Every structure is written in C-alpha cells, then in structure tokens.
What does this fold into?
Amino acid sequence: MARDLTVGKEGKQILLFALPVLAATIFQQLYNVVDSIIVGNYIGKEALAAVGASFPVIFVTISLIIGISTGISVVISQYFGAKEFDSVVKAINTFYAFIFVASIVLSLFGVYFARDIFVALKLPADVLNDAVDYLQIYLGGLILMFAFYGTNAILRGMGDSKTPLYFTIFSTLLNIVLDLVFVIVFGWGIKGVAYASVIAQGISFIMATYFINRGESLIHFSIRGFKFDYEIFMKSLKIGLPTGLQQSFVALGMIFIMRIVNDFGTNAIAAYTAASRLDAFASMPAMAFSSAIATFVGQNIGANKIERVRKGFIMTLSFTSILSVTVSISMYFFGKELIMLFSKDQDVIEIGYRYLVIVSSFYVLFTAMFSTQGLLRGAGDTLIPMFITLISLWILRIPLSYYLSRPSFGLGTDGIWWGIPIAWSFGFIASFVYYKTGRWKTKSVVKKQSKE
It folds into this structure.
C-alpha cells in the first residue's frame, strides 16, 4: 500500500501519486456540489444560500485542526522516507488521539453557537434557520469526518494515494444516494442533506478501518491503541500550527467575504455558492499536486535527496500549468451552463458566471502558488507561507473586495471577485521568491548527512 517516493523518475512518481489524489478530490468535491445541486433544485435558492453561508463557518471551525493534522502528516512522510518506521507508528497513534479529543470539543462549540454566529454575520432572515439546521447537524458529526479524512491523510503521508481514492469514491456515491433519498423521498429538506454527509463519512470510516487493519502493517486502528507521544506532537505542532493558523485566517477571511456578499442579497449569495462550488472543482488540480509535492518533498527531505526535490517541483509546475489553462478555457465557454445546474434564476446565473470569468482567468497563478507552498510544507517550512497568506488575504483580498464592490467604484459584485486574483498574484510571487532563497532546506524533522 505504501509507496517509496525517494527512488524512480521524479515526474512519473509525482504523477502516479497525484492522479489518485486528484480523482479522490473530484469525488470529495462532489459532496458539496451534489448537496448544492439537490438543494438548489428541490428545496430552493434560500436553502442553497444557507449551504453556502455555512461552508466558511465550517471551514473556520475545523481549519486549525486540519493544519495541525497536516503537520503530523508531514512528520509521518519524513519518518517514512528516513525508514524510521517505529516513529511512523508513534506519529499515527498521536494523530488519532489528537483528532479524537479535538473533534469532540469543536462539535460542542459549533452546535451551541451556530445561531449566534449567523446572526453576527447578518445573514438574511429567509436563510437563517436553514443555515443553523445545516451547520448544527454537520458539525455534530465532526468526529466521523476527522477520522475519515485523517486516515486518508496518514496513508498519503506514507505514499499511498490509491486506497484513499477507493474509500472516497464509496463515500461520495453513498452521499449522493442518501441525498436523494432523504430530500426527495423522505422530504427532510436541508437537514437531510446534512445527515447524508455525516452518515456517509461515518460508514466510510468504519469500512476504511476494517480494511486497513487487515492489510496495512503499520496502521492498526484501535481505541485501546491510542498512545500520545508528546515529543512527536510538538514536532508536528511546530510544522502544523502555522498551517493551522493560516487555514484559520483563510477561513475567517471567507466569512468576511461572505459578509460582503450578504450585502447584495439572496441572489448574490446563491450565485456565490454555486460559482464557488465550481471554483472548488477548478482548483482541484492545484490541491492534488500540492498534496503530491508535499509528500514527495517530505519523503525526499527525510532521505536527504534535495536534487530530487528541485526536479519534482519543476515537473509539478509543468503539470499544473497545463491543467489550469484547460480548466480556465472550459469555465469561460461553459460557465453559464454549469451555473444552471444549481439554479434557473437568471440573476443567479449572471452573477455566478461573472465570478467564473474573472477568477478562472488566473488559475495558472493559483496552481503555481499552491505547488510552491506544497513544497515548502513538505519540507516542514510553514511559517513564512503563513505570513504570505495572511498578507494576501487580509491586506489585499478582503479590503479590495470591499472597496471595489462599493457604489463609488461601480463594479458591484464584480468588485468582490476581482480581489481574488490580485491576492493570488502576490501569493505566488512572494512564495516563489522565498523558495529561491533555499531556507526551506534546513527545516527537516529528520537530520542526516547529505547524500547529494
């Protein structure tokens, strides 16, 4: 199941790792897209807006934990590359112990404060109750979501991207079936959509645990086997905390963006929800190859093969550039038809299409930025990328989105969308300049004599 990425052709290894991750990410995004399509067509645009309003709140709730989990995944990949398998097992046990406690705390917090959060964001009254229902049910199942995605992250850290793909496909297909049954047959409305996601993730985690316990020698999931290693956790925290804070500030930024969108009413919220779902699909190559280069770099840093890192990075930029141009062209020519999958309202379609035209024109910069930051993350260097992201979001994107959308500029919702590519441009340039300094080469958890 595990794959050694420290040998073989760099481009081939990254491609073989990234393609299953990309496929898994596609199915993963189908969770959100299918939810939104069913909600928009069978419940209404108010419910669609409620799902969209819930997403950034969910993101900010879980982002810090995801970041710290990323740190543990990097540690696992570096120990695996160094062939220190006892440390791999300790890191895995620490990972499970951490997400078990963290998910319970966050679930309680999110369920209790759901309504207060949306009231503070001034969500329109016709959207508020649906948003609260959806958020409370979704966050109530966080422990199942963390366990499922955490297991996939561990496997990828060890170079196995195929097994997570199989379980993600199963989870997504089950989610689609449950969506249709709960919403169309049972008539549970937006609550049915949330229940479908929680149940699908829970069943998939149980299945993944069963098969992994039988087949993977390094992973044996058992509550009795939880052993928290403080030293490994602190190493993971050093890598993961900046990423977690970065994710948290990104999530908070999404809430601020949603707050700006809310000023333009339900049509704008529904359009933003639909377009951002499609945007998430378009960003999948960047996510997949960022994950691939992070694991590739982690293992090769652990093995101290720096030249392989450089070659792998060049190949990754080549792959992502080709994919992003293809996606950009598709969005330009078929954007309206894609928005129509979510809503037949003409105002929603027009606003959503403008988002796609503006944002998709800059996907090349977005994928290059993600690939560069994936390399830095795999090396264990996460502090500078955190600051770059904070500047991009809080000094550029949010202020620009706000001021460009004001009546004095005359851009309306287009002004919100233009803040996105401007922030991406800065993020890529700053990340690449830092990569060229080479400081990331000194951040490895595993210290060995140079082999190259």
